Amino acid sequence: MILTAITPTRNFNTLYIILDSLFIVFLIGLLIWKKRYVTLLWSLAGGILYFIVDFGYFYLLSKSRTITINNVEANSLMTALVLLWMSLSYGITNFAYIWLCLKKDKDLKYWLLLIVGWWLVCPVIATLGGEASIKTYRTTGAYHGFMALILVVGYLLLIMRDLNTIKEKRSPILTLNLIGISVQFAWEFALLLHGIRPFNEASIMTLLVDSLIETNLGMPYIYLIFCFVHKRINDDLTLVSEKKE
Fold first, then answer.
1. Nearest to 98 by CA among 53, 46, 48, 22
2. Cα separation of 27 and 111, whole Å?
């Protein structure tokens, strides 16, 4: 009953979208400049995946996603455009955050400061754009149980794998949880702190449940993909064997 009451909501204005879009372009440029090509490709894939899930499943199939502009429900095209921005924004930043943490990037503290700092600062600057006229919300009762199942299955598979593997090659399960929970918590907290996510009786539960499940559910699978890629290709797209030579 508690989970079905959770309805994640965001209120923002056009300036917020513009500023955030410029930041994403800047972040992509920075990744290219620093030759974090694999991180960039992974991040773009994350943005596309988020869009497929948000628009394809939440909006088209489950009908759980709604967007209003000036209190009028947006049509499919406008909804797709807003969700494309949201998906690329959080998909790119989330997946970059995760990949850079997994690879223990030598400049990790700067990347995380840049991403999390932006989540905290952007809403403040966006207040210069006036009242929040765009609202997006989705109900969660239809899928949170399924998402929790994906999370449990993923971590069970990792545990079973680790029990059949020597200690040196076991997965860092606690670290994976920390990364998966922290990335979602950071931007959920920023949304709540600045009123983009309205504070109500379900706010804290939304923050906790979303942080524990929504990004964390993918961490076991992301980790296995990371291990496969990282053993073979460096972040600048050179082969690992070439780098050693």
1. 46
2. 9
List the structure tokens of 94: 């989330």
Q: How far, in Å, are 2, 122, 136, 170, 233 from residue 203 at the CA level?
A: 12, 21, 15, 36, 42
What pTM did the predictor assign? 0.91
Distance separating alpha carbons of residues 121 and 133, to the nearest angstrom = 20
Domains of the chain, residue spans: 3-244
Q: What's the number of CA atoms in the CB half-sphere (13 Å) around residue 66?
A: 12
Is residue 70 exposed (0-12), middle (13-18) or buried (19+ Cβ within 10 Å)?
exposed
Question: Cα(198)–Cα(208) distance, rounded to whole angstroms?
Answer: 15
In the chain, what is the straight-line distance between the N-terminal and C-terminal CA atoms, in Å?
59
Report residue 71 as tokens. Answer: 């209190």
| Nearest CA among 240, 208, 234 for reference residue 3 | 208
The H-or-E segment that residue 68 falls in is strand 65-69
pLDDT digits (tens, 9 = 90+) for 105-136: 999 999 999 999 999 999 999 999 999 999 99
> What type of residue is 110?
Y
Structure tokens at 224: 């296995």
Average pLDDT score, the chain: 91
DSSP 3-state of 69: strand
Copy the structure tokens of residue 107: 């400049």
